[in-house]
Amino acid sequence: MAFGIPGRILVTGNLVQDTVVYPADRIPDSGTQWVEHIEPYLGGNGASTSYAIGILGGHVRFKGMCGTDAAGGAIVARLRSVGVDLSALLVSDAYATAASVALVRTGGSRGFLHVPGSSLVALGDFAGFTSAELDGCTHYHLANPFALRAFRPHTAKALAGAKAAGLTTSMDTAWDSRGEWMQVVEPCLPHCDLLFANEDEIRMLTGHGEPGRAVQAFRDAGAKHVVVKLGAAGSVTFVQGQDEPLATPGFAIAAKDTTGAGDSFCGGFLAGMQRGLPLAEVARLANACGALSATSFGATQGLRDFAGTHEWISGTLVS
After folding, report:
1. Burial letters for 273-292: b for 16+ Cβ neighbours within 10 Å, e otherwise?
2. How does pLDDT run across 101-137, given as a tens digit for each residue?
3. N or C, fewer C-beta in 10 Å, the chain?
4. 67 by DSSP, 3-state: which?
5. The CATH number of domain 8-309 is 3.40.50.2300
6. What is the mean pLDDT of residues 53-62?
7. Three-state SS for 301?
8. pLDDT at residue 2, as a whole number
9. With 70 as the cut, is the pLDDT of residue 319 above it?
């Protein structure tokens, strides 16, 4: 790939307490349904991606917002436990930390109930990154341009500002519950060096389910390098200037919960680039992080440090 990440990664995105309910194959109309598991975890695209970078030994600064409640405090403590720099974190006295209930079905697929909380107002007054926020950073990652409602109008400005400050940039599209899709994403693409999206998202954004055609639509709109996440099948990386994409197979796992697997993938990809790994190893590391995330409940519980992840990849550890 045409760029590396020699310094810290600045991430913006949401921070959410995810309460995982399993199994949620049947939701009763009345009465009580007993389940095996109900527990809160760190969640949110921005927080999960930052955690993945941190646990792999990467240098990352997270800019988002939480409330003053216990949920926000627990997530902040977990991020700090893996070295995430929270000097840019905003704390709201007026809004609670965003919260989701993840209804996880047998086999790992899930649906969400969500209260946006502080995500409603986070970064709504964004006027550019400060010198303190950019200090030591050489790459900016926007984790889900849709999650922070008030920040939506500023996402292209954030990417453009990071580029103007000399940073390389990336964005993970995620799912748009408001259905605006390309209306939000297209202005961002000329300022985006690396775009992440999964199979469902590329179809919703471009109208094309076939990765090659979707990537061409992204490039026509200004994107450069594109990584398409394929879930259990792995990923495909399209490098600008190369005719053949890099297809990287996934790992065979028994998925418990796919919540946050895509965020963990992005964190693994960026952490691998920060380490200066060859692209094939970067993609394999990202696939491993996505798979490990899905082996446990919660977005990040299954993740391991860099050495542990490589042991898992090599088969020394059994997932």
Report:
1. bbbebebeebbbbbbbbbbb
2. 999 999 888 889 999 999 999 999 999 999 999 999 9
3. C
4. strand
5. no
6. 98
7. coil
8. 75
9. no
* Strand, helix or coil for residue 302: coil
Question: Residue 30, SS3?
Answer: coil
Q: For the segment 204-232, what is each residue's pLDDT rounded down to a tens digit?
A: 999 999 999 999 999 999 999 999 999 99
In the structure encoding, which two tokens stand for residue 208, read together? Answer: 């094309």
Please give the Cα distance from 177 to 100 (Å, whole number). 14
- Which token pair is 291? 């798979």
**What is the DSSP pairing of strand 90-92 with strand 235-238?**
unpaired
The 10 Å CB-count burial string (b at 16+, else e) for 25-60 is: eeeeeeeeeeeeeeebbbbbbbbbbbbbbbbbebbb
Assign 56 to helix, strand or coil.
coil
Under 8 Å between Cβ of 300 and 48 = yes
pLDDT band at 23 (very low <50, low <70, confident <90, very high): very high
What is the DSSP annotation of 69-130? SHHHHHHHHHHHHTT-B-TT-EEESSSPPEEEEEEEPTTS-EEEEEE-GGGGTTTTT-----
- Bridge partner list, 170: 141, 194
% pLDDT > 70, the chain: 99
Residue with tokens 């999206």: 197
Could you give the CA distance from residue 120 to residue 91 in angstroms, rounded to a whole number? 13
Residue 318 pLDDT more than 50?
Answer: no
The rounded Cα 160 to chain-centroid distance in angstroms is 20
CA 196, CA 311: separation in Å to the nearest integer?
Answer: 26
Contact (Cβ atoms closer than 8 angstroms) between residue 169 and residue 163: yes
**Secondary structure percentages of the chain, helix, strand, coil, to 5:** 35, 25, 40
